[in-house]
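ARCHIVE CARD
Drawer: 12
Card no.: 0347
Subject: one protein chain, sequence and derived structure
Cross-reference: see card 0346
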Amino acid sequence: MNATLTEPLDWRTIFSFKSLLLKLIGVVCAVVAIKGFMIPNHFLDGGLLGISILVHEFYHIDVWIPLLLLNIPFVMIGFKRIGKNFAMHSLLSLVLLGVALIVLPIPAVTKDHFLVAAFGGVFVGLGIGFVIRGGGVIDGLEIIAEFTNKRFGLTTSEIIMAINTTIFLVIAIFLGLEKAMYSILTFFTAVKVSDYVVDGFEKLISLTIISPNSEMIKAMIVNDFNKAITVYKGERGNLPGTFGVKHDCDIIVAVVTRLEVHKIKKAISEKDPKAFMFVQNISEVGGGILSRKPGH
């Protein structure tokens, strides 16, 4: 039997104050984007939200109806493939979004096309990001992308981008190239904002340090900053003009957050001004010891 079907439902987490508050903030932001920017100006986004607005444009059906109907199959996939709690969080988020679309009277904010695309994307991104922080999703493509990510190893962004490319081609064919271009701008803004809301200052970064004073730097990172490290055995030297001159060294790698990296780099530079450092963004981590709380 699939392990996800046997997991118990954690009602305390699903209906916790923090989870509900994050979902409500996200839902309100999404409604502001949909009713205040996108629908009055006939703008679209990617994902099932974009398809729902497209259905609304063609058939004048209230946008919450296709949005809920299109998401139900994906919630079922999430229930079977990811977990009961994930599916319940998502279903609750979608119900809240549907109710908010019905009861919240949001007037049109602006008619300027660039502002609509930019700030519509900002509010969509805020909505998606806060709902994810609350444990759910408001676009079923995120569910299928999560499942596909686990099964095939493709990143969520790659999967969603491939699906949305098809949607934007349809928009270009039926509504014109300009609408498609603005929709891409809205989608791109939403993705960037939602990523920042989800990761925030907790976004993880890999910091690599090469220094002749490696023992001092290792002790400082572990003892002063309470961060775990990994050490590779390598070589320093091999510089232009002195190729062949080399020294054994420890290459220190630490996974830190966006806020921590600047403090640690500054401390290392003060102790060893000649230390060589570089940073890399991390898209995914697993296992090991990280001082980071799970989102849900």
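Annotation on reverse: Residues 177-199 form the longest helix (23 residues). Confidence is low (pLDDT under 50) at residues 291-296.
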